[in-house]
Amino acid sequence: MGCLVRRRSDGDEGCPMNLRYNNPGHYYPFNHVDLTITYHSGATEEWGVGFRENGGRIISVKVVPSSINHRNPSAPDCSSKEPLEIEANALAAGQKINITYTYSVKFMPNDTIKWSSRWDYILESMPHTNIQWFSILNSLVIVLFLSGMVAMIMLRTLHKDIARYNQMECGEDAQEEFGWKLVHGDVFRPPRKGMLLSVLLGSGVQVFFMTLVTLAFACLGFLSPANRGALMTCAMVLFVLLGTPAGYVSSRIYKSFGGIKWKSNVMLTSMLSPGLVFSLFFIMNLVLWGKGSSGAVPFSTLIALLALWFGVSVPLTFVGAYFGFRKRSLEHPVRTNQIPRQIPDQSIYTQPIPGIIMGGVLPFGCIFIQLFFILNSIWSSQMYYMFGFLFLVFIILVITCSETTILLCYFHLCAEDYHWWWRSFLTSGFTAVYLFIYCCHYFATKLSIEDAASTFLYFGYTSIMVFLFFLLTGSIGFFACFWFIRKIYSVVKVD
């Protein structure tokens, strides 16, 4: 481990670990580490009675690497400030060099910090807390704005519409229907590709509850930041165990569309999204195997993942679908006409593509600051510990996706466009496209990845994250819109 100071003309000042290492075209190997171990002696605690003066509980270990040129390897001077410089082109291929590695240890007692509060110093030393609060306030402003818009529509516009619609009793008045009531006979018409939509919604519900429970566990302290694999393990186990809600929701939605191919629905729900994620993961693991990386997942672990998938998740999905298909089909508040109504020409603002593109802007605005810290944790080996902030941002994301989709859905219904099924899913799901664009920006500006294999791995894992986020946000928007439409059409009198 060390630093390479490149010959650059863009203002590069040297190694970020120590600005004294700034000679261009030289390596600075970190051959010395200073270890500062802070411990609680337990002298004033019950648990420290047995330690006496011989021990305690470690609170923190601070490691500071440095480069020291040990001129006399038999008697190294660890206090020397002279760095070990190796010219980048000085060594030929296969040539060996002897480097002396040293370390120093310093024990510091601190009885003011309890062992249970040993992580607090990280929170206090990180400068990102103010940025996090700024992110939360920024997101709350967006939520308040959207909530005000939705409240205005609900309390004023919708209330007036419903009161006016319900006062129409004679036939002449009925012919004067306009706005969203005009499409009451088509608003619940089954969409095209209903099978695919129901499958994606089932997987989206699975991802939603997986995320919700995982973040709740992390906030309650069940998942320690010290164990970097605990969060992913918990999420994976929950995803497997939540196959039942996925099968149930998918079957209920598909049955409401009038679908009869229940076997295909169950198989696609249990295979499509997990299969896509596993295929991407397996391809990237092949790249790691080919490179001989220690980060490659062993073959036995892949077999265990397949066993969890086919032995636990798939049967649970079948169980959920069984109960979903046994229940009566969802009854909509209004009947569907046999002949579809012609949709009038739409303005550019109410056409599908502009509405979908606009729908993802506000939800992404709520998460992009938090997203920076998450990407740093994944790709820059930084510890992520702010699960409380993340859970709050997740709640704000749910509210923002719901309100944005409801607003745009209402505007489209007022424009007599009743094709809302796929549009509600894609409107909030388009947030994932902005997520992918931001990940590309992060790759270009924050990372220094040059080889093709690492680039492929980055975009492979990013694709998995974007796909799961698409399912999550799309499902949130769909069910919010579904609830909204059922609600408004259940309170108007329709002949």
UniProtKB/TrEMBL annotation:
Record has Signal as a keyword: yes
Gene Ontology annotations of biological process type: protein localization to membrane
Entry keyword annotation includes DNA-binding: no
Membrane topology note: Multi-pass membrane protein
InterPro entries: EMP70
Transmembrane segments annotated in the record for this chain: 133-155, 199-223, 229-250, 271-290, 302-325, 356-379, 385-413, 425-444, 456-485
Localization of this protein: Membrane
A single GO cellular-component term on record: membrane
Annotated family: Belongs to the nonaspanin (TM9SF) (TC 9.A.2) family.
Protein name as catalogued: Transmembrane 9 superfamily member
Record lineage: Eukaryota, Metazoa, Ecdysozoa, Arthropoda, Hexapoda
